Amino acid sequence: ILLKDLSRLGRNNGRTLLFIEFAEEAGVRIVTADGRYDSESNTELAGLDTWFNERYAADISRKIRASLKYKIQSGEYIGTAPYGYKKTARGGSLEPDNEKAFYVSKIYELYLSGWGYSKIAKHFTEIRIPPPKSNWSSQSVMRILSSPVYIGVTVQGVSRKLSYKSKKTVRLPSDRWVVTYGTHAPIISREIFYRVQEERAS
Questions:
Q1: DSSP bridge pairs for 156
Q2: CA-CA distances (angstroms) from residue 199 to 111, 112, 116, 117?
Q3: How confident is the model at residue 75 (pLDDT cuts 50, 70, 90)?
Q4: Could you read off the pLDDT of 165-191 as tens digits, one per residue?
Q5: Percentage of residues in the chain with pLDDT exceeding 70?
Q6: CB contact set of 194 (below 8 Å; sequence gap of 6+)
Q7: Can you give the pLDDT at residue 193?
Q8: What is the pTM of this model?
């Protein structure tokens, strides 16, 4: 196996060393183009190199998290714009997508007139309104009706990765969420939004 350097094999110290051991036992030679490692002749620094590679990955992860936290606290919207909005030209905040914003308002209007999630989803499917993702569902309607993003409030940081080594995320308690008010133009008035929340709760 020819690699640019050992970091290309992995940035998890323990797993990388286990793989190197497995490869050696299987008779597979590992060589890095930077000349620092050759499993047939030059293995003394492997443990040190893989440890530094892991530390580097941890440091980069910490800096990225700090940068994202700063952006979130400054009111920037991280991720894909919710249905009814689009990212501004500079990409940091939200602005209404007029056509879809109209349908968001219609969902609130229909719900307050007595329509349920499924009936709204079915109606929008039948009249071919562009859906949030692949199709309209009671779940997608419920998300739109419950999200404070439509009154100009940004709620982010609701989950985090377990660690820089893992892709698994955990949901954080609500007191650790980052809630920023007045970050973008609302589509729904506060009065209508809170009337809908009362209706949903009952």
A1: 178
A2: 9, 8, 11, 12
A3: low
A4: 656 777 777 777 777 788 889 999 999
A5: 89
A6: none
A7: 96
A8: 0.61
Q: What is the pLDDT of residue 163?
A: 59
What is the C-alpha to C-alpha distance for residues 6 and 31, in angstroms, rounded to an integer? 9
Residues in the chain: 202
* DSSP conformation letters of the chain: -EESSGGGT-S-HHHHHHHHHHHHHTT---EETTSS-BTTTB-TTHHHHHHHHHHHHHHHHHHHHHHHHHHHHTTPPPSSPPTTEEE-TTSSSEEE-HHHHHHHHHHHHHHHTT--HHHHHHHHHHTTPPPSSSS--HHHHHHHHH-GGGGTEEEE--EEES-TT---EEEPPGGGSEEEESSS--SS-HHHHHHHHHHHH-
Lowest-pLDDT range of 50-59, 101-110, 156-165: 156-165
β-bridge partners, 170: 160
Distance of CA 76 to the CA centre of its chain: 14
- Please answer whether residues 181 and 173 qualify as being in contact, where contact means their C-beta atoms are separated by less than 8 angstroms: no
Token pair listed for 3: 């690699």
